[in-house]
Write a structure and sequence with these properties.
The complex is a heterodimer of chains A (246) and B (369). Helices cover 76% and strands 0% of the residues of chain A. With 246 residues, chain A is mostly helical. Chain A starts with a helix and ends in a 5-residue tail after the last helix. Chain B is of the alpha+beta class and 369 residues long. In chain B, strands 2-1-6-5-7 form a 5-stranded antiparallel sheet. In chain B, helix 1 runs parallel beside helix 9 (288-302) and helix 6 packs antiparallel against helix 11. The longest helix of chain B has 31 residues, at 38-68. Chain B is globular, with a radius of gyration of 21 Å. The chains are: A mainly alpha (246), B alpha+beta (369). Chains A and B meet through helix 2, helix 3, helix 4, helix 5 and helix 6 of A and helix 8, helix 10 and helix 11 of B. Chain A: It comes from Linum tenue. Chain A: It holds the Pfam family Aph-1. Chain A: It is a multi-pass membrane protein. Chain A: It is found in: Membrane.
C-alpha cells in the first residue's frame, strides 16, 4: 500500500535492529565485520537448507506436519552452525588476545566479548528479518495489500513484520546467551537457546489454523521477552561480578 | 549499488515485456530474443562476451602503450572528453526516462542547460579536483551508476556470461606477467608515479572516526575506454560513444603524504583493536570499474526479485572482504572483480533456484524459524 506503508513495514521489522546498529555497532568497525559475516553465515545456512528441502517443495499447505519436520531440521542445522560460529569466534579471540599482548595493549574485556556476541546475534536477526520479511515485502510498495486466509484481520505484511521483529529479538539476544553459556560451560544457558529457538519455530505452526495468529503471535512475543529478560539478567550478573574491569 | 537498484526498480516496473534491443558492441555478435532456445542463447551470450573481452583487451593494450610513451596529457584530455560524453548522453537518456515516468514538467531548453552544466561540472570535479571531496565522490558515483544502468539493459544471458568473462579476464590481466593491467601497474611503480586512474581511495579508521572507510577521489584521473556503441534511439552516429571503466584493480599504494610502504595489514589490525588502535595512512584504492560491475550484478539481480538483491549484496561484500584479506596477505596489486563476481553470481543462481521457493513457502504460511 504505497511507499510509506512499505517503508513502515520494513522499519517495523528492522527498526530496533537498526537502532542497535547505529548506536552500538557502527562505532567499531570490527563489530560491523562481525555483523556482516554472521548475516552471511545465516544466509548460507538458509541456502543449504533450501537446497536440502527443494525436492520436497511445494509442500501441501493444508497439512502442518511437513512444516514441523522442516522446522525441526532447520533449527537443528542452525543451532549446529551457532556452535561452529562459537568455535571460530574462540579461535579469533585467541588470535586477538595474542595480538593485543604483542602490541602491549589490553586484552578483550568481557564487555567487548559480549558486544561481539551481540553483533553476531544482530547479524542473524537482521538476516532473518531481511530474508523472511523484507524480500516478500516488495508488493507492499504498490497500491494494494494482501491478506492471508489464516489471519484475515490484519494485512499479511503487517503480520510478517511483527513476527520478524520477534524473531530478530530472539536471535539477537540468544546469541549473547549462547556465547556466554559456551564460555562458562553453563549447561542451562547452552540448552536454553536451542530450546527457545525450537519452541519459537513450533509456535509459528499455530499460525496454520484459522485465527491461529492471534494466539501464536502473543506467545512468540512472550518468548522474545523471556529471552530478553534472561539475557539481561545474565549480563547484569556478569557486569556486577566484574565491576572493576569495566 | 543501492542507487542502481532503485533506478532499476523504478524504471523497470513500468516497462513493457520486451526490452529495447540496443545495438552495442556487446551484442554485435548476437541479439538475443526470448523465443530462442536455451542452447542458442548460451552460445550467443558466449560469443558476445568473447567479442567484448577481446575489444577490452585490445583497448587496454593500447592504453598501456600510450602510458609507456608518456602521452598522459592526451589520455587525460581523452578521458575528460569521454566522461563528458557519458554524463551528457547517458545521463540525459536516463533523465529522460525518469521525466517520462514521473511526468515532471520541464521544458527542453531548461533541461538542456541543466544537463550541460551537470556534465561540465562533472568533468571538472573529477579531473581538476579543487572542489570539495563530496562533489567529486558524488560525480564518481553518478558516472558509475549511469554506466551500470546501461549495462543492465543488455539481454539477460549476455549480462551474466559477460560478468563471468570479465572476472576471468580481470584475473588474467592482473596476475599474468603479460597482462596489460599488470604491465601498467609495474610501469607506474617503476616510474614512481601514481597510477592516474579513476579510483576510490578507502582510508581505514583513524581513532575515533566513524565508519570503516572514507572515500576520496584521486587527484589525477585516467580511464580505460570501453567501446559501447550507440543505442537505437540516439541519432548521433558517434558510433563509439564511450563509456568509461577504470582499471579494475585494487592496489595497495601509499598516499603521497607518507613515505614507505605502510601496508594495509596495519589497517586491518587497527580495526581489530576496536578503535583504541593507531591510525595508519595506508590507503586501499578500488577502481571505479569494479563498482560498476558490482552494480551491474546487483542491478541485474534486482530485475528478478529483491531477495536476490539482498543475497547478491551480501555476497559481493563478502567477496570484497576476502579480496581485502588476500591483499593484506600478498601485498601486490590484485584483481578485485573475480572473487566478488564469483560469489555474486553463485549466490544469485542459488537464491533464485533454491531459496526463493523455500522462503516464499514458509512465509506465506507464516511459518518461520
Amino acid at each position: 500500500m504505497t511507499v510509506a506503508a512499505g517503508i513502515g513495514y520494513a522499519l517495523l521489522a528492522l527498526g530496533p535492529s537498526l537502532a542497535l546498529f547505529v548506536t552500538v555497532i557502527s562505532k567499531k568497525p570490527f563489530l560491523i565485520l562481525t555483523v556482516l559475516s554472521s548475516t552471511l553465515l545465516w544466509l548460507v545456512s538458509l541456502i543449504v537448507l533450501s537446497g536440502f528441502w527443494r525436492p520436497f517443495l511445494p509442500l501441501n499447505s493444508a497439512a502442518s506436519w511437513p512444516f514441523a519436520v522442516l522446522i525441526i531440521t532447520s533449527v537443528a542445522f542452525q543451532e549446529g552452525l551457532r556452535l561452529l560460529f562459537w568455535k571460530v569466534y574462540k579461535r579469533l579471540e585467541d588470535m586477538l588476545d595474542a595480538f593485543a599482548d604483542r602490541v602491549s595493549k589490553p586484552r578483550l574485556y568481557p564487555t567487548d566479548k559480549m558486544l561481539i556476541a551481540l553483533a553476531g546475534g544482530l547479524g542473524h536477526g537482521a538476516a532473518h528479518a531481511v530474508f523472511f520479511c523484507l524480500s516478500v515485502l516488495t508488493p507492499a510498495f504498490g497500491p494494494a495489500t494482501f491478506f492471508t486466509d489464516q489471519c484475515s484481520q490484519i494485512p499479511f505484511f503487517l503480520v510478517s513484520s511483527i513476527i520478524a521483529l520477534a524473531f530478530a529479538t530472539i536471535h539477537t539476544f540468544s546469541m549473547v546467551i549462547a556465547f556466554n553459556g559456551y564460555s562458562e560451560g553453563n549447561k542451562v544457558d547452552q540448552l536454553f537457546v536451542p530450546v527457545v529457538h525450537l519452541v519459537a519455530g513450533m509456535v509459528t505452526l499455530i499460525n496454520f489454523t484459522t485465527g491461529g495468529c492471534s494466539i501464536g503471535i502473543p506467545i512468540l512475543y512472550i518468548i522474545a521477552i523471556l529471552t530478553l529478560l534472561h539475557c539481561g539478567k545474565m549480563v547484569w550478573g556478569k557486569l556486577t561480578e566484574n565491576q572493576i574491569r569495566l | 549499488m543501492f542507487l542502481v537498484v532503485i533506478l532499476v526498480a523504478v524504471l523497470n516496473s513500468g516497462s513493457s515485456s520486451s526490452p529495447p534491443t540496443i545495438n552495442t558492441i556487446a551484442t554485435i555478435a548476437y541479439s538475443e530474443t526470448t523465443s530462442d532456445s536455451t542452447w542458442d542463447k548460451l552460445k550467443g551470450a558466449l560469443l558476445n562476451a568473447l567479442v567484448f573481452v577481446v575489444v577490452v583487451t585490445a583497448v587496454t593494450f593500447l592504453l598501456v602503450l600510450l602510458f609507456y610513451f608518456r602521452c598522459t596529457h592526451f589520455l587525460k584530455l581523452y578521458m575528460g572528453f569521454s566522461s563528458f560524453i557519458v554524463l551528457l548522453f547517458l545521463g540525459g537518456e536516463i533523465a529522460l526516462f525518469l521525466i517520462r515516468k514521473f511526468s515532471v514538467p520541464i521544458d527542453c531548453f531548461t533541461f538542456l542547460v541543466l544537463l550541460f552544466n551537470f556534465a561540465a561540472v562533472g568533468v571538472f570535479a573529477v579531473f581538476l579536483s579543487k572542489m570539495a571531496i563530496i562533489v567529486t565522490q558524488g560525480y564518481l558515483v553518478a558516472i558509475g551508476m549511469l554506466v551500470a544502468y546501461w549495462f543492465t539493459l543488455l539481454p539477460e544471458w549476455t549480462t551474466w556470461v559477460l560478468l563471468v568473462a570479465l572476472a576471468l579476464y580481470d584475473l588474467a590481466a592482473v596476475l599474468l606477467p603479460v597482462g596489460p593491467l599488470r604491465l601498467l601497474v609495474e610501469l607506474a611503480i617503476s616510474r614512481d608515479e601514481d597510477i592516474p586512474a579513476l579510483v576510490y581511495e578507502a582510508r581505514p579508521v583513524i581513532n575515533h572516526d566513524q565508519g570503516s572507510g572514507e572515500y576520496e577521489g584521486q587527484r589525477r584521473a585516467w580511464r580505460r575506454r570501453r567501446e559501447l556503441g550507440n543505442d537505437s534511439e540516439s541519432d548521433h552516429n558517434i558510433g563509439t560513444s564511450d563509456a568509461e571503466v577504470t582499471a579494475p584493480l585494487i592496489q595497495n599504494r601509499v598516499s603521497s603524504v607518507v613515505d614507505g610502504q605502510e601496508s594495509s595489514v596495519a589497517s586491518t589490525d587497527n580495526s581489530f583493536l576496536e578503535g583504541i588502535g593507531l591510525g595508519s595512512s595506508g590507503a586501499i584504492k578500488l577502481g571505479l570499474g569494479d563498482f560498476i560491475f558490482y552494480s551491474v550484478l546487483v542491478g541485474r539481480a534486482a530485475m528478478y526479485d529483491f531477495m536476490t538483491v539482498y543475497a547478491c549484496y551480501l555476497a559481493i561484500i563478502a567477496g570484497l572482504g576476502v579480496t581485502l584479506m588476500l591483499l593484506a596477505l600478498y601485498q601486490q596489486a590484485l584483481p578485485a572483480l573475480p572473487v566478488s563476481i564469483a560469489f555474486g553470481v553463485l549466490f544469485y543462481f542459488l537464491t533464485r533456484l533454491l531459496l526463493e521457493e523455500f522462503v516464499v513457502q514458509c512465509s506465506l504460511n507464516l511459518v518461520m524459524f
